[in-house]
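Good morning C.,

I know you're traveling, so I'll keep this short. The sequence:
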Amino acid sequence: MSHFLQEWGVTRVTFEQDPEPIWQDRDMKVKSLCERQGVECIEKVSHTLWDPHRIIEENGGSPPLTYAAFNQVAEIVGLPEKPVPNPDFEGISLPVETDHDQKYGIPTLSSLGIEPESEEQASPCCRYMGGETKALKLLLSRLENEKKAFALDLSLPNQLYPDLVGMPMSLSPHLRFGSMSIRKFYWALRCSYAQVHPNSPIPASITSQLIWREYFYCMSVNNPKYNCMEGNPICLNIDWYNNEENFKRWKEGRTGFPWIDACMRQLVQEGWIHHVCRHAVSCFLTRGDLWIDWQKGLEVFDRYLLDADWSVCAGSWMWVSSSAFENVLQCPRCICPVRYGRRMDPTGNYIRRYVPELKDMPMRYLCEPWKAPLKVQEEANCVIGIDYPAPMVDHREASKECKEKMERIKNQCKGVPHVAPTNETEVLSYMWLRKNTVENIEESIHETCSHLNTVSL
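The tokens, ready to paste straight into the viewer:
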């Protein structure tokens, strides 16, 4: 970088603050280099709606304990700044040398040794396109969809009635890479609601997903172990199973549950899946059916998701697995991969697209094809156990065992807050408390764990 500063005659460097701890060493090195070279360095908060350090300061020096508490602190801080007007580039000429691409061009994936893992990945059904132009066009389409919902007094319409086979409406990859301003998105949603309901207060629900993003960023700021279980002061150290075969079947979309398999195959093929799909596969892997470590799932999401974000992705996995973020563990009934699949994919088009083995299976049996009579399976050219795997677990039994274990953990962990400590003394005492709590949990659920491990095979 020092070479470029001198070659280009740089006098000022500006960049967007990235508050996540994994990037802090990089940013400090850039600031130090600029100082040595006599280059002005300007850092601005724009990747998040609020400066997370300000939120922590207003909360007394530690991150807000829960999502609700975060909202209370954010209300004290005030609404995020509005986006600045679009810049005017008229009259600005940037010289481009003839060998620019040779010097500064972005290398191709092939030149980096990265090739598609499958034919489906090389030619996906839905291809996500990057860049600000695409992001702004997608934003306009998204806002039209939102306005229709606002007129019916609904919010987050694509969560209630997701279009799983249409082009993705999510802007999360653009937020991840900075081709869409988070403040522009936030204020566009508020302005759209005000246009539909000019005399009504703006409900928090219309921007709730963006606020969850802020909350996870805030929780990760001073926690370099945020994406880990061991050594992470906000995460319960649970004795998850280490079953590589079950994990592999989940990752490859061979669980025998068509809804789960469709979600996982789309993830690997296209680099994106809807929020309802993420929730389903995460619950299935962890506290719902397989009782496998959430860190394993995080590795898969980090590898394939276009919008994989260090703070948000890890935060979502800890939350879904009931490992963090509440005073007392919330353990609602886990997602049923059959009933939830029917609800989210009522036409069956999504499953038929991503699990083509079942494309001719009657809708009645599509989400649980193992219940179809053999004659029906043969007519659909999909015999369970031969053309498509049988379910890897008995969901009713597996989920029952998982729930019992989670309830025991919940009872053992009452009084153990899910919040990052603020100093070294608190860290040591906090980790000691978690270690001893989990040791008691492991001893009390050993017999149950052994039984479920047999079921999972």
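Safe travels,
E.
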